[in-house]
# Entry
Amino acid sequence: MTSSIARFVRRSGFGLALLLGSTALAPAQTRGGMAIDANVGGPGTFDPAMIATTIELETLNQMYEGLVMMGEDYRAKPMLASKVDVSPDGMTYRFSLRHGVKFHNGKEMTSADVLATYERYARISPNAVVLANVARYEAPDPYSFVIHLKVASGIFLDILKSPAYPLVIYPAEFKDKPARDPDLTVGTGPFRYGEWQKDSHFIMRRFDGYVADDSAPGPDGYAGRKTVYLDAVRYNFVPEANARVAALQAGDADVAPTLPPELLARFNGRADIAVEKVFPGCQNVLLLSAGNPPTNNVLIRRAIAAVVNAQDIADASGQITRENPSILYAESPYYDAAAVKPYYSQNNPAKAKALLAEAGYKGEKIVLQTNSNYSYMRDEILVLAEQMKAAGMNAEVQVVDWMTNANNMAGRAAGWNISTSGFCSQPLLGPQQWRNMVYNFANIKGDTALDTAYDAFFASVGVDDRRKAWLAAEQIILGNAYFIKIADAGSVFAYSKKLSGIRPWYNIRFWNVSKQ
Amino acid sequence: MNEGLLRRGAAAAGQLARRLAQALPVLLVVAVVTFALLHLLPGDPAVMIAGDQANPEVIARIRADLGLDRPLIEQLLRWLYALVQGDFGRSLMLNQSVLSAVVERLPVTFSLAVLSLAITLPIGIVLGASAAYHRGTWLDSLVMGVALLGVSVPSFWIGIVSILIFGAVLHWLPTGGYVPIGMGLRPWLACLVQPAVVLALFQIGFLARLTRSAMLEALQQDYIRTARAKGLGEWLTVARHAFRNTLIPVMTATGIIISLLIGGSVIVEQVFALPGMGRLVVQAIMARDYPLVQGTMLLFGFAFVLINLAIDTLYVLVDPRVRYG
# Structure
């Protein structure tokens, strides 16, 4: 016996999201025109298997679609699959593909394309580890695709929905293309590749052959029924925030994303411009190296966590922030703020001093490494350093460039103890997305309790068991101070009211948007 | 045909060839130093390409694919061997040849530099010469004050203020971006005039101060007194005798200014969202895109050699006392 799409719909909350989507449809939308988005930067490639940056994903997820995609509520929703049947043992996922879906090159999408996409992904994507649990694929007929797992999983659809390194489908003829191949621009999405001048602009045009998912009443995150009114969307790459604001003020752009809050006053008195503050955006987290002395001592890490006044650090970041003790968002089925609250913003120097004494700390240098590229990270670290010094710690701030900073964190390098970063997709996508980051950035080895908790999370088919397993893992991550949560950071964007149908969300989408 | 002219032409061509040949060791040093400095920087392009989800095994695989796991000396020799065959390598982040990436962006930076130079030279020279001629007057003080402001105020700040005033408030000029000259002279000028002026402000200040001091020195020479004593008109005395003798330092400064314009374009291109060489190099350094940084630095080095060569050649035309060979 297999579960049906009805079960999938219930489980994913698809029906509710569709209802929300349908009520928010803009009235009397007109067809035509080009929207201009003054974005921070541009894509480096359109090869989905290689893409993880927010800027690249914004364009890519409007040109490509996957079997399932992230809905408005951040859960997996069917997109190119009309139905997903999961075997009772959680080992087999059968996707029934929608008929008549066309690629931008006019060819109909079939299971052969899905198979080729998945096989290429497993071969070249830096994120291929997410398919390590796949035993084999099957494409028994043109409209069926079957994935057999090695170990039962209740989160496999959550893995497939990820908009970072998205498992989106392109034609089978690209199967043997190398990573970042420039020919890879063909998807099934409502927008198609138009014109790209590197460092200048990218234009995506309406795909007139787009086959919308008519079973859905309206758009739903990256899924649902998408209708494109605009002829094209042009992304101008404008790295300077002041210039993005000026472009919107002058009418050179219709949308200006990623704005520092201090610039918003420039829109005062402009009734023709709307400002949106979007939560969730990213999470600001301190990362502590468990591989480098003296923070390889858990007591010293806990002492650092004890001195943190999260509000002061968040204020210094200059971002719009809100308190949240968890490294997940309230929308997640695994969220439990109360369980991790004791580790959050302790602001307790006396406790820190006691822990330092217990650890035998003798004033060894603790290196706080940050970078000059992202001022919010640098400013957070500067405040943390003062909080640590006040508790008697020998905190030394080291400012390097982002590349060096990121390399040291990801590459488990020596010479640093604390750093900070903003994580955007991981908290949205859930515990499975955090795993690599937690282990790599905190340089964790031999923490059997964490290994056990994570193993239980991946092995549990029932959501209650997974929730319990994740809670254990999160308490270890924050309790052992591998990570110290600071705050949720929102993103700010502004747009011209000439556009109707803009819906604030994780990323800006231009379907169901029209321009006067 | 005039035999003397032919002989001088052949000599000039020989001189040019010798100077270009002398540039080769310079370019080799530029290549090796750039390679060494870049690889001394911490950071690994494989990490950038792999993204933050990748585990160490994936990063190691990408390093091997890119040849970054090989000994540095082997990487250097491979690069130099490809260079002598005209292959500047392939950008790691753009997945295109370094040469094509440069060719795509060169027109932007070239346009910006030429326009900026066209603004800098007449204004800088006239201001400097006027200040020198009217030394000690309010005009001198005003010009030197403006020149000081030009060299002191950071170009990113002037750029932002300029965008706000001329773009957002007055709507006279676009707030950023680039339109190729092929799409019309007017839109090309409209998008370049702001960044070109901003870029020129520093150079105008620099050139005006230098021209003033060279002109002051020339105006105090005996031949100026002689010219005036023999009754030559003031305009002719200044233009023909004093000004011409300031041209050698002014031309030397022009060579430096062209180099500064290319260097200064990094910030101006960022502020005005121009897809030029400056942005390319900054992004390449940030991403540790070794082939792209090495290739562009080598091309910059070659451009500077050519600029110096052109300036040296112009010396001969301006001052008959200068001879090479």
User: Anything to note?
Assistant: The radius of gyration of chain A is 23 Å.
